[in-house]
Amino acid sequence: MFRPFGWHEFVIIVMAAQWTIALSAIAFAGGAVGGLMIALARVSDFWPLRIAALGFIRIFQGTPLLMQLFLVFFGMNILGFGINPWVAASIALTLHASAFLGENWRGCIEAVPPGQREAATALGMRYYNRMRYIVLPQAGRIAVAPTVSFLVQLIKGTSLAAIIGFTELTRQGQIINNATFSPFMVFGTVAAIYFVLCWPLSLLAHRMEVNLSRATNR
Question: Which three-class secondary structure string do you get for the chain?
Fold first, then answer.
């Protein structure tokens, strides 16, 4: 017997958004660390690092996120490593974010004028100091807007974690819909919450792009 969609169901869905936010935050933080390592490996003078980083990027950019979630969750369990949906989703999304942020940031690093690196080298600065004090601060300014844009995509991508049983916003909506059979109300509420989470970030990314463009043209 179905129950009507009411305030109680609405609150349950809203509360589930905390798990979407938490999963997004973990994946983004882990992806930022991994992405920086991948980006630095991609521009390294040591060619095996460049090849390994490129292979990692090709694998995770060339396969659907859903397949990555399946492989981590079911693969680890098949191999005998008991893993719950929360951990599996965190690992898969972190690897996914590492690949995309790494490639994005690689482009930002290479966007820094070569003269900057050449001048630092002429001054006798080693690779670590060149990257830390000269290249990365300039690349960071360029990377802010696309990084925020990717965060929006990552938040929406967490909805795929529902397929492996992780109870975030989308999965909670499915559960409530099965109990109320009110798909328009349930998934309309879910969509509205995603919009509330993502729209301010989209505006922020756009404003950052405009400000960067103005600063560059001065």
Answer: CCCCCCHHHHHHHHHHHHHHHHHHHHHHHHHHHHHHHHHHHHCCCCHHHHHHHHHHHHHHHCCCHHHHHHHHHHHHHHCCCCCCHHHHHHHHHHHHHHHHHHHHHHHHHHHCCHHHHHHHHHCCCCHHHHHHHHHHHHHHHHHHHHHHHHHHHHHHHHHHHHHHCCCCHHHHHHHHHHHHCCHHHHHHHHHHHHHHHHHHHHHHHHHHHHHHHHHHHC
Nearest to 164 by CA among 76, 81, 96: 76
Q: How confident is the model at residue 214 (pLDDT cuts 50, 70, 90)?
A: low
> What does the buried/exposed string (b/e) look like for 68-94 if buried means 16 or more CB atoms within 10 Å of the residue's CB?
bbbebbeeeeeeeeebebbebbbbbbb
User: Best-predicted range by mean pLDDT among 18-27, 109-118, 123-132, 196-205?
Assistant: 18-27
pLDDT in the model for residue 190:
95
Question: Domains plus CATH for the chain?
Answer: 7-217 (1.10.3720.10)
Neighbouring CB atoms inside 10 A of 100's CB total 21
Of 114 and 61, the structure prediction assigns the larger pLDDT to 61
Does the predicted TM-score (pTM) go above 0.85?
yes
Higher-pLDDT residue of 217, 60: 60
